[in-house]
Design goal:
It is built from 25 helices and 27 strands. It is α+β, with helices and mostly antiparallel strands. The chain folds into 4 domains: 109 residues, PAS domain (Beta-Lactamase), CATH 3.30.450.20; 108 residues, Beta-Lactamase (2-Layer Sandwich); 163 residues, Alpha-Beta Plaits (2-Layer Sandwich), CATH 3.30.70.270; 241 residues, EAL domain (TIM Barrel), CATH 3.20.20.450. Helix 11 runs antiparallel to helix 12, helix 12 packs antiparallel against helix 13 and helix 16 packs parallel to helix 18. InterPro entries: Biofilm_reg_signaling (IPR052155), EAL_dom (IPR001633), EAL_sf (IPR035919), GGDEF_dom (IPR000160), Nucleotide_cyclase (IPR029787), PAC (IPR001610), PAS (IPR000014), PAS-assoc_C (IPR000700).
């Protein structure tokens, strides 16, 4: 081959080789660019997929053949307590989930691996890391390799807890609607019925298809007026609901009572969508309540009002009387001889008698009057609208006739004629201005007086007498309290020998240191307890206090006698002497002769033999006796003969006018003469002037007491008075 040709071929080959090198370089650069694009695309995919896993709310995951997690969504990781889903990669279900959940997941995924089929919309419960519980709906798909084998699983789940709860609530509401014992009616915003439940039909009698589209007015009973329904709908519109009792009409026409609640249902825009009515038939309860109310207010035997209902009617009658200015009368009636009927014929016959008499007595009343039975054979009535108090008398007489008329009954299949009568007490309101309870008590008191007067009659309550008795009772209560609280005190009035000026002793006189009225004299309170046992208690207190004072003065070397007044009732107590001695024994240092008992002539007059025996017993124990107010009675000489009195007291009524009245002077002179003749001492009370004192001295009466010498004084003032008296004695004639 020529050299030139060879060189040409070499050059050509070199050029082709260079062209191949250039082509390879260009292809290498293109491949590098393509690889860079693939790497960039893969990186972008990984970034986007990771973002998807981080942000999706669904539970997304991949697992390999061994069941290990390849990746999952962050929402799933967070639910089970992982901060980053990558912490779950490579782990098995039993390492990630609670045992009860992991076992279920493993079983379901085993099915997908084994069958190569997806498992769709499977709902399972879950328990999260914070113990929250719910439900998840999951679909799983198998992923295959090139050989058609399942090599992994892709799953997507969604939390359906809220849906499940909503569905459960809907099912519950439907069940309640269907099975509720209460009637349920649903109306649209225009008030037309759109649905009812089975209990609605049971209570109202209407089938569902009969009422759909109708207005609830088909149930209207007519017992509630238009104003009632207007007020009801006003409340529904304002408050959104209403509840109360209502009477409706059954399809059959029967009226029934129900407790009804109406509630408004609003849509999302707060517009009225429906009205729901829920109601319960309470007719049996109403009937039972009516029976109970009748039993509570009426006597089961006679059908008359009982005590409770009568009290209400009496209260109404009193208010009506106050408005109308008419009187009313409260009547208390008790049957005479009813117990004998019960004892002889038995309670069954007695009950039949009461029923008959109740009917008769009800007919004896006027329209508007009320008769009640309080139990047993006691009846009470109120007569209203009386123009005058005596207008009740004809009714009282008719009641007496109704009770006294024979009642023919059967006993042991034999006819019997039963005879009773009535004792009736009555009081008139407002003449008797008491309250209702006291009016009945007053009528009851009058009824007992009718019984005591012979039965089969009536007696009208004496308001004036009762007022006096009430005041007496209140006064006694005050005095009992005064005795208990130590409000009584003794004042002492000196007794002196006006010839020698010597203080002989004192008379103890009771006073009441009243907390509101101040110091009260005996005449202001003692007459209120005369002939009452409280006078005995007060009298014993006087004796005990006086004896204690004698002892107190004796401890100060002052030997004085003290006289006390003894009332008739106290003197006639069978234990008077024993009680007197018991008081004296508590002060053994006090000589008995220093105590003097002043006895009124009127006290001794009641039973002179008993009084003489008591006073002789006292005298035998060295207690001195004086006859007070001597000369005011008509048996003074008898007393001097039979009573062991050592002293006669000339009553101040004679001393007061003896200077100017010859008759009083003659009586005073006579008493002094009697005392001298019977060997008794004599003392004049009520001495107020020196002229009286001088005249008494001239007649031979040296012992005196009175305001002219000294007024009664507290014990603490007595010794200072004595010092003053001894220093300048009362001026007297020698």
């Amino acid at each position: 081959m020529p050299a030139t040709q060879a060189l040409a071929e070499v050059a050509q080959l070199t050029a082709e080789l260079q062209a191949c090198r250039d082509l390879l370089a260009r292809q290498t650069r293109s491949l590098q660019v393509a690889e860079q694009k693939v790497a960039s695309t893969e990186l972008e995919f990984n970034r986007d997929f990771g973002s998807f896993l981080d942000k999706t709310s669904d539970f997304v995951y991949f697992k390999n053949r061994e069941g290990r997690m390849r990746f999952c969504s962050q929402s799933m990781a967070t639910l089970f307590g992982y901060a980053d889903w990558r912490e779950m990669v490579g782990r098995l279900d039993r390492e990630l989930f609670p045992p009860e959940s992991s076992e279920v997941y493993a079983d379901e995924e085993a099915y997908v691996f084994a069958q190569g089929q997806p498992l769709l919309n499977k709902v399972n419960s879950y328990r999260g890391a914070n113990a929250q519980q719910g439900y998840v709906q999951t679909s799983r798909w198998p992923l295959f390799n090139a050989q058609g084998e399942v090599e992994s699983i892709f799953g997507i789940g969604r939390d359906v807890t809220d849906n499940r709860q909503t569905q459960a609530h809907i099912q519950l509401a439907a069940s309640v609607f269907t099975h509720a014992r209460e009637g349920i009616m649903i109306c649209d915003a225009q008030g037309s019925i759109v649905d009812v439940n089975a209990s609605f039909s049971r209570i109202t009698g209407y089938r569902r298809e009969e009422v759909i589209g109708a207005n609830p007015r088909i149930l209207n009973s007519g017992r509630q007026d238009a104003a009632f329904y207007a007020a009801m709908w006003q409340t529904i519109v304002k408050a959104g609901h209403w509840s109360g009792e209502i009477w409706n009409r059954h399809k059959s026409g029967a009226v029934y009572a129900e407790i009804l609640t109406i509630s408004t249902v609003f849509d999302a825009e707060q517009q009225v969508k429906n009205y729901v009515a829920l109601f319960t038939d309470i007719t049996p309860m109403k009937e039972h309540q009516s029976q109970l109310e009748h039993m509570a207010h009426y006597d089961m035997l006679t059908g008359l009002p009982n005590r409770l209902l009568f009290a209400d009617r009496l209260g109404q009658a009193m208010r009506q009387s106050d408005r109308s200015k008419h009187s009313l009368s409260v009547i208390y009636l008790d049957l005479d001889g009813f117990k004998a009927v019960n004892d002889t014929y038995g309670h069954e016959t007695g009950d039949a008698l009461l029923v008959t008499l109740a009917q008769r007595m009800r007919l004896a009343l006027r329209e508007g009057d009320s008769l009640a039975r309080f139990g047993g054979d006691e009846f009470v009535a109120v007569l209203v609208g009386l123009e005058h108090a005596h207008d009740c008398v004809p009714v009282l007489e008719r009641l007496l006739l109704a009770a006294a008329e024979p009642v023919k009954l059967s006993f042991n299949d034999e006819p019997v004629s039963l005879h009773v009568s009535a004792s009736i007490g009555a009081t008139i309101y407002p003449k008797d201005g008491a309250d209702a309870d006291l009016l009945m008590r007053h009528a009851d008191q009058a009824m007992y007086l009718a019984k005591q007067a012979g039965k089969n009659r009536y007696h009208l309550f004496d308001v004036a007498h009762d007022t006096a008795v009430k005041h007496q009772r209140e006064w006694l209560d005050q005095m009992r309290r005064a005795l208990k609280e130590g409000e009584f005190v003794l004042y002492y009035q000196p007794k002196v020998d006006m010839h020698s000026g010597l203080v002989l002793g004192a008379e103890a006189l009771i006073r009441w240191q009243h907390p509101q009225r101040g110091l009260l004299l005996p005449a202001e309170f003692l007459p209120g307890i005369e002939n009452h046992e409280l006078s005995v208690e007060v009298g014993e207190w006087v004796i005990a206090t006086a004896v204690a004072q004698i002892g107190a003065w004796q401890a100060q070397h002052l030997l004085l006698s003290v006289s006390v007044n003894i009332g008739a009732l106290q003197l006639q107590q069978h234990h008077f002497v024993d009680r007197l001695m018991a008081i004296l024994e508590r002060h053994p240092d006090v000589p008995h002769r220093h105590l003097e008992l002043e006895i009124l002539e009127s006290s001794a007059l009641k039973d002179i033999a008993v009084v003489a025996q008591v006073l002789h017993a006292c005298h035998a124990r060295e207690v001195r006796i004086a006859l007070d107010d001597f000369g005011t009675g008509y048996s003074s000489l008898t007393y001097l003969k039979h009573l062991p009195a050592e002293t006669l007291k000339i009553d101040q009524s004679f001393v007061r006018d003896m200077v100017s009245d010859p008759e009083d002077l003659a009586i005073v002179n006579g008493v002094i003469g009697l005392a001298r003749a019977f060997g008794r001492q004599v003392i004049a009370e009520g001495v107020e002037t020196a002229q009286q004192s001088a005249l008494l001295l001239s007649l031979g009466c040296h012992q005196m007491q009175g305001f002219g010498i000294a007024r009664p004084m507290p014990a603490a003032h007595f010794i200072p008075w004595m010092r003053q008296w001894q220093a300048s004695p009362f001026v007297h004639a020698s």
